[in-house]
């Protein structure tokens, strides 16, 4: 019988293959631009997952520019939100290892500290420049919402969904500790803390089970910003930790009886918006999204264990 890890990888692979096929057939007007490619249109429509909206020669982005890097997990949140809400926007891709003066100037115009290290995402909408992924995500969810398309959470499910997102995100700094570990003792301590964090996130999903009424997402049947805040790190945890630390996320969840978290990961991993952005990451980087993620986090790893690591 296939393991939960193998089933999860197979499910994602099938979804990604379908997404690539649809992206390959998409209309040229729906392509993202870097500096000289036409404006980005409906992402989900480009995949054939929703009806494409058309006005005359096609819907064009009007006054909205999303500035990001292809592989940043924090900026990925806002990209997913724009995709989910079928928003029109121009995509500006930046290389964070070779920042341009124009990018640095744009960031400085909006950052609380104009001298801070420029980062993504940056959203420019109707003349206003915005920074910080959580704030931009909230703005997108409120501003681009329309009838039949909402990713905002509310009520009891919103409470449990946000509690889950906040709890799951506590694993993120521990993820970086695992990558930055320089000896077995430090790595072992980080692994233990990471697994403890996963157990807490699983517990929150269990606590909110009645409110979710069997729905697969953090707020039940509705996919919301609570899912988005947490889910961009799921593929990074799976791919990057397996590569650099021989850590199998799915097997760890199964061994620690985190079935609620497993089900949530299955649900968000096959979300069409995620599959779409994986395809775009591959198109923009010229690599598989797995390799792109591994390369993105390479700068945090200075030591590799000679022994395989398996969480306990």
TrEMBL record:
Residues 21-42 are annotated as: Disordered. It comes from the Eukaryota. Residues 21-34 have a biased composition (Basic and acidic residues). Pfam families: GST_N_2. Residues 62-148 form the GST N-terminal domain. Residues 150-293 form the GST C-terminal domain. One of its GO terms (cellular component) is cytoplasm. This is Glutathione S-transferase, N-terminal. It comes from Ostreococcus tauri.
